[in-house]
Amino acid sequence: MLRVHDLTRRFGRLTALDRVSFEVAEATIHGLIGPNGSGKTTFFNLATGFLQPNAGKVFWGDREVTGLAPHHISRLGIARTFQNTSNFANLTLRDNLVVASRNRVQTSVLHRMLHLGSARSEEADHGRTADAILERFGIGHLAHTIAADLPGGTQKILGVAIALATGPRLLMLDEPLAGLNPAEKVQLMDILRSIRAEGLTLLLIEHDMKAIMQACDRITVLSYGTLLAEGSPAEISRDPATIKAYLGTEAA
Ligand SMILES: Nc1ncnc2c1ncn2[C@@H]1O[C@H](COP(=O)(O)OP(=O)(O)OP(=O)(O)O)[C@@H](O)[C@H]1O
Ligand SMILES: [Mg+2]
């Protein structure tokens, strides 16, 4: 569903991403791994319109979306989280999710026309969506807490919940497990697997190799901006180039 062809991005003399091509298949969890600075976040920024490529193309289904603005790409059904920043409006968890739900992709103009005059029930729908997601992420008891007052790990979980509340078809998560405690990690990975089971697609940047190997259907490995390997977790975990560049030092 998301496909990139020869995607290239330079920063001055550094080529952060060098002719990278791969495809994320629908209803899979696809891992994007590689050493620090290998171009993973740059890939996310290019695919979601936060950066423009120097060369190459991005396709969403049959449609070329190269260079579209972030808000345009998100309206097509791609949601993402950011590696370091969690920037929440000064709202409760529940209200953050209600706002995200109001931005749902599915609430099309047609949808609104069919529900003419039922703005109140639409608002109730957003409330129900928010409550369901709070429960699903195990943060229902925090519904009325101001998001900025949460501990870091819970803020990261909320970031994923907010992305999901926008009703995407593809969820791109940049190191969602960083800063979570072991119990939170297990819980979030269970949630991600259940999201995939419902037909959503996930593209996951993550350094936690245990989680990656357990959850992913397919893994793409970057090294110095180039595509080093791609395959199933079993294939990647015994790929000599990947072990040399990454697994040997970080996870073996
Ligand atoms: N806006 C920018 N300006 C200049 N250089 C950048 C910019 N963004 C990224 N880079 C450089 O591009 C390279 C790839 O960075 P990127 O953030 O994509 O790596 P990453 O794989 O996400 O690493 P990490 O695992 O540490 O998050 C790095 O050398 C980085 O310093
Ligand atoms: Mg990164």
UniProtKB/TrEMBL annotation:
It comes from the Bacteria. Residues 2-249 form the ABC transporter domain. Pfam families: ABC_tran (PF00005), BCA_ABC_TP_C (PF12399). PROSITE patterns: ABC_TRANSPORTER_2. GO terms for cellular component: plasma membrane. Keywords: ATP-binding, Nucleotide-binding, Transport. PANTHER family: ABC TRANSPORTER ATP-BINDING PROTEIN (PTHR45772:SF2), CONSERVED COMPONENT OF ABC TRANSPORTER FOR NATURAL AMINO ACIDS-RELATED (PTHR45772). This is ABC transporter ATP-binding protein. It comes from Fuscibacter oryzae.
